[in-house]
Amino acid sequence: MTLLRLAHLSDPHLSTPLPPPSLREWLSKRGMSRASWARGRKLLQRPEVLEAAVADIKAHAPAHWLITGDVTNFSLPAEFAAAAQWFATLGEPGAVSVIPGNHDALVPVPFSQGWAHWLPWMQGDHATTDAAALPYVRVRNGVAILGLSSAVATLPGLASGTLGTAQRQWLATQLSRLKALGLFRLVMLHHPPADGVVRARKALTDRVALRAVLREHGAELVLHGHSRDARFDPLPGPQGLIASFGLPSISAIPNPLDEGARWHLLEIAATAGGWQLGVTVRAFEPTQQRFETAATYRLLMDRSA
């Protein structure tokens, strides 16, 4: 019996037209990011690819959308507001779960001018205050979605992330609680939890500590973005391996640095002893200018893990 159909996508890097930023806004790490964008990234991140991806996802009618960060490019206040408008076109807030990436924390931004715009899509089921935005838990038809934030402002030249002790402790508590409830536990963060996926300057600084939490308490699935190619890096769990998938940018055309846009249709079904995860890989085909199925497979998961 299928419990939930989800679409996972990452790193849209929205290129929505924005008001010209002020000189003060560029006198920061944003200026370096703008230079990188002007040198070529804007030619690789294509709005028409993102539009095709959204149309393709909607045609597959997932019950829930999962977006693992890097929604903006420069963390400008106008970008956060524009991103909220884009989220609203995907589905009801309860059917779209978002976490931030390093580009969404490029520089410190007051909460009211930044992530506050995303609260309907970045908040737990029972949140009552702004402070409850991250981390969060949302439960959908037997599936618990745990949203973490590895997005922190860093020095120029760095794109690393950190969860921190408080989030890791929260995660340990929630994983144990949700297992006792018999729920499928799906963890989202932006930065890859495995070693060697990205260069050190872009890596999750406390990934070893995160993997220790997962090894002790378990999870059924971990999803991330941030990598330039698609990833499957199983992580050690208490009884076996935990599936961990990463995706490249959903708006990138294939190029020497990027594998190209793709998204995953995830179908979670209950079995007698646990769960079955069906994965359909939808990849952008540049010659056809459309998304096509690149692979399909199933994973079986023991409920005791």
Largest sheet: 7 strands, mixed
CATH classification class: Alpha Beta
CATH topological fold name: Purple Acid Phosphatase, chain A, domain 2
CATH architecture: 4-Layer Sandwich
Rg from alpha-carbon coordinates? 18 Å
Please state roughly what percent of the residues sit in beta strands, choosing from under 5%, 5-15%, 15-25%, 25-35%, 35-45% or over 45%: 25-35%
Can you give the mean pLDDT?
91
Runs in which pLDDT lies below 50 for 5 or more consecutive residues are: none
Per DSSP, the total helix count is 6
Care to describe what's here?
The protein is an alpha/beta fold and 305 residues long. The chain has a single domain (2-302), classed as Metallo-dependent phosphatases (Purple Acid Phosphatase, chain A, domain 2). It contains 6 helices and 13 strands. The strands form 2 sheets. Strands 4, 5, 6, 7, 8, 9 and 10 form a 7-stranded mixed β-sheet that branches. A 6-stranded mixed β-sheet has the order 3-2-1-11-12-13.
